[in-house]
Amino acid sequence: MAVKTPRISLAGSGALLLDGAQGAFDDATQELVWAVANAALAFEGVCETVPGMNNLLVLFDPLTTNAQIISEQLNSLWAGTDAHTVTGTHHTIPVSYGGARGEDLAGWAAHCGMPVDDIVRRHAAATYTVAAIGAMPGFPYLSGLEPRLAWARRSSPRLKVAEGAVIIGGAQAGIMPMTAPSGWHIVGHTDVKLFDVQAELPVLLRPGDKIRFTIAGIEG
Amino acid sequence: MIEILTTGLPNTVQDLGRLGHLAMGVSHGGAMDKEALAIANLMLGNDPSAAGIEVALHPFRLRAHVDTAVAITGADCAISVGDRPCPPWWATTIRAGETLALEAPHLGARSYIAFAGGLDLPPIMGSRATDVKGNFGGLAGRGLSRGDRLALKPAQGSLPAGGVGAALEERRGATDGLASAIGLRVLPAAEFDAFTPEAQAAFIGSEWSITNNANRMGYRLSGATLSLASPLELLSHGIVPGTVQVPPSGQPIIQLADANTCGGYPKIATVIEADLWRLAQAPVGARLRFLPVSIGASTEALRASQQRHHDFIAARDRMAGSALASLMKDLSRRRQLGPYPRVAKAPIRYPYSTRASEQADP
What ipTM, to 2 d.p.? Predict the structure, then answer.
């Protein structure tokens, strides 16, 4: 079902955004995104590929190739690639929900029309997949949020959201690897470190990894 | 060794950026005005990607602890080396114990200081650029503070007496957005058609101003409210510097050098790469206009800006002391002279070296 002609649009003169989304996030489409992201790096003139959530940004040098060539190559790659399942590492992330470091918890529960304890239990019950790493160093875009728990992003982003914040943005979940601006809602906090530039592998999580949140505490 | 005497935290060590790690969430970063830093380096015989200082908050002062050479480009501001005035877009020697001082710009927003040999800092993921968000690169991943000392790598060559200047035709007569609006060429982005016809018309037809929420990550603009034809909640996707996002508030944000690698807000357009320096040099309060262009025109503009690196450095051997002397005399009348000093130009090869420039001269 993922193999349908993707939408490809310009992102400036040196990048194309391939959007394979068919409505809600889809795991099979994401596996195709990972495969195409790897394969497209071999195209002449392609500099970097950036997997997003059911989409792929492809950066190229417009002085050695052009958008039309890359677009055609991406279309045939998308149609002709077999997605493969990535076996990732499993991680457990303890979360303190609510309180000063989870200030949107009550609003989230109200938005979803359920008690705080219920929403926390549901958030911690799911298994999440790291769909993509991006936005900031080591930030995981997590799929697997129960659709009932989705909450549209804030109308205007906060200029500072703390490192370790456990957050919700639309149908996506995430964890802040560093203090930075974000338009997502803050529902809790973890002490697990996701990015360490001194480490041999600076980024803890990789696409395909699985995550479970455990409840370290709930503060209404 | 140089020592920082007067600075602010927005002033950082930068180079041409950290490429190849977007899929780890690491932004390209690097100088906001990459051309200005590259040319400052080229004037000194450095690789264009050598590390220098981006000054976004003036005044800025440093002291040299060794005899070396510096090049200052970017904003048009009063500059002195010891007791000698120096025009912007000029490379000159500085002696141990002398102070380099950059005053508040009267045109433009960011100055770049390159050093003969470049700043000697450990590269992280292939770059010395400061990633303030990630807290790495540059000097301890942070902005510069008073008392910071930075080592220099060995210089590649020496400057002629009187120094050397660069004049970029593209920048002569450039506006800072205060006297008149800055024109930024844009390509439509993925969600352009999802905006109402009124929003599309207002985006192109009206003026925008840069709010004080403006930094290396991006500039928030104020102006007309841009509405989508119907609400749209997108999945997160990779973005490039220059992306113009419209959050539900309807007020656009232009993502810049330190922007997140991915975003989720609808994208109405992308400012073309060749015009990003105009934003780097636009202060808070500057007015902007978006000008739609074709992809062909956008690529041509990029080609032209690369060509400028080949063409627009005044060859060092053309810079006689007399040219500098007459320029110094005119410093007090800089505004009448136009934004940048007029100096002789000679095409040189790229990357720059003294030998190559001698051979390239007809």
Answer: 0.88
